[in-house]
Amino acid sequence: MLQVGLTHFLVVSAVLFSLGVYGIVTRKNAVMVLMGIELILNSANINFIAFARFGNFGYSGQINALFVIVLAAAEAAIALAIVLNIYKTFSNVNVDEIDHLKD
Amino acid sequence: MNYYDIIFYLFALITLVSAWFVVTTRNVIYSAFFLLFTFFGVAGIYVLLAADFIAVVQIMVYVGGILILLLFGVMLTNKMTNVDIRTGATHLLPASIATGILMGAVVSVMVFTEWKIQPTEAPDTTLKALGTLLLTDYVLVFELLGLLLLVALIGAASIARREKE
Question: Is A97 part of the contact surface with chain B (CB cutoff 8 Å)?
């Protein structure tokens, strides 16, 4: 149990995923919901790279992790642009109070 | 217990404790800085998994790009009359129960599955292999990602710009 194998990395990834989900569900600020999303993407990346190390199928897992990092960057940029727009319209970014379309 | 195990437990502890503080602290700036420590912990885990290039890419893109973007988002969307920005949390008890059940389910799947593992020798550097793969097997995805980044750049700039009144 103390000798570190594949399972240890997968457990770290699973706990990080759960913390990300908890962050998305409980946070009221929209930017902190984005932080929860980044935690979830990082946990999936740890999973990819752990299997790339411990499986025997080349480096596909690491290439996929690279793609996930690129997609996370693009998505964070767009999400923050949208959050800035929301702040311009509603004057706060509390996700509970953003409940109507443009009037 | 050799050095590998000790360093793994250290980085796992850094990652998980920082992630716990990201999702529980009330101060928004503290949350962003604990996210910084989480990203560094994850980069350390990548190095332990013989993914040296991905670890450096993680630090450059996540810490040097996305975290700065998130900090800009925090600063621009809160009325910063004082340094300390507090935010609230909703549905703490149902979320804790549901997330606890989810974590229990996923961790038990991870632990009780007989993974067929064949660990190979850790390479010196993965850089050459990754570069070759990007330009031979994954060249289409590589080009599409370039296009996607261009679209994201144009989209973000046009969504967030200030309208001329």
Answer: no
CATH 3.40.50.720 fits A6-90, yes or no: no
Specify whether the CB–CB gap between A17 and A45 falls below 8 A: no
Question: In this predicted model, which residue has the larger pLDDT, B65 or B120?
Answer: B65
Residue A90 vs residue B119, higher pLDDT: A90
Partner-chain contact A77 B152, CB within 8 Å: yes
Which residues, including other chains, have CB under 8 Å from residue B129's CB and lie 6 or more apart?
A: A58, A59, B123
Query: Looking at CA atoms only, how far is residue A57 from chain B in angstroms?
Result: 9
| Contact of B155 with B162, CB cutoff 8 Å | no
The CA distance from B121 to A54, in Å, is 10
Say how far residue B94 (Cα) sits from the centre of its chain: 25
3-class secondary structure, B27 = strand
CB-nearest to B61 from A4, A22, A69 is A69
Sequence ranges of the domains in chain A: 6-90
Between CA B41 and CA B35 the distance in angstroms is: 10
Residue of chain A whose alpha carbon sits nearest to that of B131: A63
Q: What is the pLDDT of residues B38-96, one digit of tens each?
A: 999 999 999 999 999 999 999 999 999 999 999 999 888 877 665 556 666 777 888 89
Q: What are the DSSP E strand ranges found in B25-163?
A: none
- What's the mean per-residue pLDDT of chain B? 89
